[in-house]
Here is the input.
Amino acid sequence: MAFNSNFEILYKKLLSEKTKERSERIILIIAIASFIIHLALIYLVELGIVPFNKDADLLKNPIAAIYTPFSFILIYEVYLLIHYLPKSISIYISKQYEIIALIIIRRLFKDLSSLSLSDDWFKIKYDLQFTYDIITSIFLFFLIYQFYIHSKKRFRTASKTQDQINSIGRFIKLKKILATFLVPLLVLVAIYSFINWLLSNVYTNPNATISFNNINNIFFEQFFTILIIVDVILLLFSFFHTDDFHKVIRNSGFIISTILIRLSFSVSGLLNNVLILSAVVFGLLILIVHNKFEAQLAIEKVD
Here is the structure.
């Protein structure tokens, strides 16, 4: 009993609506401050006051300064994903898609500083990647909108028994436990990922220029690996309160979608974009077919 009471207190401190609103304000303040600092750093490097390499992707163009506040917005999106985990699987999955879409948008701001405006647009690697990302971001925006529409559909079902209600309650409690432990875990992973990248790119060779290779993957490779583990745990425990075929397929499909997103961090170029779009399309189609099952079952129960 004491454990349940202490756990509820911890859960509310970390993931309550009040905490969410406070976190949003803090992140916005940090994002604005980081943009100003990054912008100032770019001009200090340009003037030779700060001894960094002015040709580094994030230091040679003021537009690249937008990359930094977007990184903090992504941190808030990660928090929102954890926040909605106990409340709705569909919203939880949609937040994954929003995160990968924002990662691509953030990458666009970084790549803007490396564009070469010439007749050889389709022969230059950075220009091609920028083109892929522009097209991918548009398609992702539309697919996420469709996912949101289909996730809001509700179907009339028969009244649940007390055992079913208790089973769902236990499943929600499990999701709350996972979400509560995810908050400190992901904070630790974020700190570790950043320090590891910083050490490997800056301090291993003091005379080397600052490298921004794979900076888009910092933290998020590990983050989506953790999400896959969480999704599998949820799938296994979901069998305690439902063995409906369409729900099992839906939950399994969402895991595959998350795995495809994780795989996208292991490749670059067009294949990266194809994997991301495939992940969201797959998740959307799984949800659409699941809703067809729900609609048909609702009709049969009415008859």
